[in-house]
């Protein structure tokens, strides 16, 4: 056997492990996938939705992980907030019909919510006693998949694990009268999101609908966003380093209305699922 053929065999043998290994990437996957963070008994884990069952994952969803043989019935688990973010960012004025007479912003207008405002699917939204009925804001929420700093727009989706449903609860009285939005947008339970992280779908062309007690109050498509997902991620990353699991609420559509204790609000995004919460009076 010639030296050239021996070298070729060595190279091919070295390639076998690489060909057999399919890495888990944090970019939107070719095949639609729904991830979730859940609790079963005392255990908290990530899983993949498979019909009406959840396949438990071993490892870190934002690093190295693998599927296990253990599955759970969807009705037997508690779905948690999708991630434990270091930061929660939201956008103001990202749909023209929400701006009214205000000018269209040339670049995204982010503000901060606090991670402690997050609420899980089926958790309650607390109506504070010292403000008018809180408003709903149906929003697509970006889930960051890996550390993003100064990311170019054409590479931004490589840093996105997927999207989820969000409801940017807003106390308009506080928002109008306070200098900062810290309590108007960041009070406890003012950031419902979930139930799933959807990857492998077109984030730029999804129907979004919000219902209160079954009545449609907001309806749009994400193609109507002024700034799309890549633009948002790239812009924010120029100034703030985004970490795995960080969440970005991308703005709401149209005019919003107040909700009352007892109301059930649902945010549905095509290809993602339905986020459901009930409003309760603060005790």
Any overview of this molecule?
With 283 residues, this protein is α+β, with helices and mostly antiparallel strands. It folds into two domains: 23-79, SH3 type barrels, CATH 2.30.30; 88-281, Fumarylacetoacetate hydrolase, domain 2 (Alpha-Beta Complex), CATH 3.90.850. Helix content is 15%, strand content 36%. The protein has five helices and 17 strands. It has helices at residues 3-20, 96-99, 172-177, 182-186, 229-237; strands spanning 33-40, 43-50, 53-59, 65-73, 78-79, 88-91, 110-113, 118-119, 124-127, 138-144, 160-167, 191-199, 207-212, 215-221, 247-249, 264-269, 273-281. Strands 1, 2, 3, 4, 5, 6, 7, 8, 10, 11, 12 and 15 form a twelve-stranded mixed beta sheet that branches. A five-stranded mixed beta sheet has the order 9-17-16-13-14, with no helix packed on it. β13 and β14 (215-221) form a beta hairpin. The longest helix is centred in the N-terminal third of the chain and has 18 residues, at 3-20. The chain is globular, with a radius of gyration of 21 Å. Residues 6-29 have low confidence and may be disordered.
Set down the secondary structure blueprint.
Blueprint: H1 3-20, E1 33-40, E2 43-50, E3 53-59, E4 65-73, E5 78-79, E6 88-91, H2 96-99, E7 110-113, E8 118-119, E9 124-127, E10 138-144, E11 160-167, H3 172-177, H4 182-186, E12 191-199, E13 207-212, E14 215-221, H5 229-237, E15 247-249, E16 264-269, E17 273-281
Parallel strand pairs: 6-15, 8-12, 9-17
Antiparallel strand pairs: 1-2, 1-5, 1-12, 2-3, 3-4, 6-7, 10-11, 10-15, 11-12, 13-14, 13-16, 16-17
């Amino acid at each position: 056997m010639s030296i050239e053929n021996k070298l070729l065999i060595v190279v091919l043998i070295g390639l076998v492990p690489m060909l057999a290994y399919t890495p888990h990437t944090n970019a939107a996957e070719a095949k639609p996938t729904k991830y979730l963070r859940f609790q079963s008994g005392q255990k908290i884990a990530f899983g993949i939705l498979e019909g009406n069952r959840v396949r438990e994952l071993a490892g870190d969803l934002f690093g190295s992980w693998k599927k296990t043989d253990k599955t759970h019935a969807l009705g037997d688990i508690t779905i948690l907030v999708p991630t434990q973010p270091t930061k929660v960012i939201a956008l103001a004025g990202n749909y023209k019909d929400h701006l009214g007479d205000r000018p269209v912003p040339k670049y995204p207008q982010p503000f901060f919510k606090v991670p402690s405002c997050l609420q899980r699917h089926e958790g309650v939204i607390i109506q504070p006693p010292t403000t008018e009925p809180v408003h709903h804001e149906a929003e697509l929420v970006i889930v960051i998949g890996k550390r993003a700093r100064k990311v170019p727009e054409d590479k931004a989706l490589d840093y996105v694990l997927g999207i989820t449903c969000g409801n940017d609860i807003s106390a308009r009285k506080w928002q109008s009268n306070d200098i900062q939005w810290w309590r108007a947008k960041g009070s406890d339970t003012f950031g419902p999101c979930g139930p799933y992280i959807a990857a492998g779908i077109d984030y730029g062309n999804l129907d979004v609908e919000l219902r209160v007690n079954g009545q449609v109050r907001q309806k749009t498509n994400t193609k109507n966003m002024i700034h799309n997902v890549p633009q948002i991620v790239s812009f924010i990353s120029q100034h703030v380093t985004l970490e795995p699991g960080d969440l970005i609420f991308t703005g709401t559509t149209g005019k919003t209305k107040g909700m009352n204790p007892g109301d059930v609000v649902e945010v549905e995004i095509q290809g993602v699922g339905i986020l459901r919460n009930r409003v309760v009076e603060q005790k």
